[in-house]
Amino acid sequence: MSAFQKETVLSVRHWTDSLFSFTATRDPGFRFQNGQFAMIGLEVEGKPLMRAYSMASANHEEALEFFSIKVQDGPLTSRLQKIREGDIILVGRKATGTLITGNLIPGKRLLLLSTGTGLAPFASLIKDPDVYENYETIVLAHGCRQVSELAYGEHLVEGLRDHEFFGPLIRDKLVYYPTVTREPFRNRGRITDLIASNQMFDDIGLSGLDIETDRIMLCGSPAMLEDLHAMFSARGFVEGNHSKPGHFVIEKAFVER
Ligand code: A2P
């Protein structure tokens, strides 16, 4: 059995010159936990060309969804950005990753902090009923350079607000906090600075960072992860993993450089 399953692209949506998302069929045998990633890619010259991608869909959904950057000379994304409905993609049979609720000590508030396509695993987690069961409040922060890069996240949250099952949960528990660094927007600045200054919590009308109640997941650019890791560690937060749950967990956004 090949390590990769062939799946059919069901839809593709381009959000900006540099961001797109797509859905694909899902093998019924492909199981994952919300927040995990798998290797996905294309067959190029007879060989699989694969990269790690977080599932943006939840594990109760029939189709798979991915949110991707487009890198013009990137080996995979220069090709992947051209896929159309009906095309075949390859999906690894094994999902893995640290951004799962089981890697966190129980808490009351879940902070999902992302930049760029680092939003993807959180798109999956905010469609997980258990997340709403286990936390009183979920804060989804998404930092981008430009307002246009927020579109996928805005559309996702809007869609959930109108959803029959998730609508009431989202209204009661999810706080969506988009922020932009390089042009005017209602929330401005880097997530790091907005947390350090307490501005994010002031803006959303919630109490500041508290190790007793807050559990944190991070996904985004390496610089953002490094800075937040240092900030949370300095405040006594301990990183969790599969063998020992902690106050926060980290996954790199799988960006082609
Ligand atoms: P900035 O515009 O100030 O660099 P990128 O597109 O480079 O991955 O960045 C996505 C977002 O992450 C941008 O808003 C960027 O802000 C922000 N960012 C970059 N480095 C950091 C960091 N060390 N901490 C927090 N946010 C960061």
From TrEMBL:
PANTHER family: FLAVODOXIN_FERREDOXIN--NADP REDUCTASE, OXIDOREDUCTASE FAD/NAD(P)-BINDING DOMAIN PROTEIN
Keyword Oxidoreductase among UniProt keywords: yes
Top class in the EC scheme: oxidoreductase
Annotated catalysed reactions: 2 reduced [2Fe-2S]-[ferredoxin] + NADP(+) + H(+) = 2 oxidized [2Fe-2S]-[ferredoxin] + NADPH
Name of the molecule in the record: Ferredoxin--NADP reductase
Quaternary structure (record): Monomer.
UniProt cross-references to InterPro entries, sorted A to Z: Cbr1-like_FAD-bd_dom, FAD-bd_FR_type, Flavoprot_Pyr_Nucl_cyt_Rdtase, FNR_bac, FNR_nucleotide-bd, FNR_type-1, OxRdtase_FAD/NAD-bd, Riboflavin_synthase-like_b-brl
Organism of derivation: Bradyrhizobium nanningense
Domain FAD-binding FR-type span(s) in chain numbering: 2-105
